[in-house]
Amino acid sequence: MAANRSAGRDVHIYNVNDPDTLIGGLILTNGVTNASFYSMVEIICIFNQGYFLRREDGTEVQRNDQPLRRGSYFIVTNGTVTINNEPWLVRTISVSSGTRVAGFRDAIRQRDRRCVITRRPALNAEFGNWRGFEAAHVFPLAYEGHWTENNYGHWITINPENEGSINSVQNGMLLDAGIHSLWDGYDVSINPDDNYKIVCFSRDRHGIAGTYLDQQFLQDPSRPVDQLLRWHFRQAVLANMRGAGEPVFEVDFPPGSDMMGEIRSGPMAAERMEFELFNRFVMQ
Predict the structure, then answer these.
(1) Where are the alpha helices (DSSP H) in 13-96?
(2) Any alpha helices (H) in the chain, and if so which ranges?
(3) Nearest one of 75, 87, 4 to 42, comparing CA atoms
């Protein structure tokens, strides 16, 4: 059974002209400011005139770096508020394996040698032991058709020899295995337009919310390009904040369990089945 992303929300968004209809919300974690909240609202909503946010106590929210407070927020505008229907791409955890992504994995390991979000070093890497660390794609490999159709490859300046631009080192990071799961599930993301702040959309058990990517990583010319980080952040906002949020899928399938049966009986079955099948195909 898929979990509900809206469970545990302590920030709620409404239109002041329709206060009974929930537009979206957020589980508040460290680092979310009034200004960053405005930027998130502008991802899930489209406005044709200026607007501002009002707290439930009637005070206007300023676009500043003060920490966002828990509670209900109301959009105030003389124009219209339209919910953004930008597609959310179904995604579950995808560990890079197979001959096609071996070069991607090795390039990511050589560049990062640590989880770039937690900064925890891969201490045993010098002995060839990378257990607990995984090369993660920013844009998922399973959607290579979408990548090609939208020409995302034009952002890439370092192309691998044979694996396609989607497997460029500029579309990946080395992550702790647990963080990788959260990254692929859009529970954690990086906002390149807020000094590369790490944003958590579920309760933060790693102490990473509100921290930043370090300068060593940011100054590396082969790091992930801002456009792809921005794409991931938008997807995370849409998944977690728009309406009731997107489903959180089961990813723990022990040997002998009926993975495909569980997927078929769950939410967004067709989309998830397509992702799983394409993910397996492109890894070959």
Answers:
(1) 34-44
(2) 34-44, 102-112, 144-149, 177-184, 215-218, 226-241, 259-265, 269-282
(3) 75
CA 101/CA 120 separation, integer angstroms: 23
Per-residue pLDDT of the chain (284 residues; tens, 9 = 90+): 556 889 999 999 999 999 999 999 999 999 999 999 999 999 999 999 999 999 999 999 999 999 999 999 999 999 999 999 999 888 765 555 556 689 999 999 999 999 999 999 999 999 999 999 999 999 999 899 999 999 999 999 999 987 789 999 999 999 999 999 999 999 999 999 999 999 999 999 999 999 999 999 999 999 999 999 999 999 999 999 999 998 876 554 455 555 556 656 566 555 555 555 555 544 44
Token pair of 267 as six digits:
């939410």
CA distance 160 to 78: 50
Q: Do 199 and 31 contact (CB within 8 A), yes or no?
A: yes
For tokens 């929210």, the residue is 61
Cα distance between residue 264 and residue 160, in whole Å: 36
Rg of the chain over CA atoms, in angstroms? 20
pTM: 0.87
Q: Which tokens is 179 given?
A: 């963080």
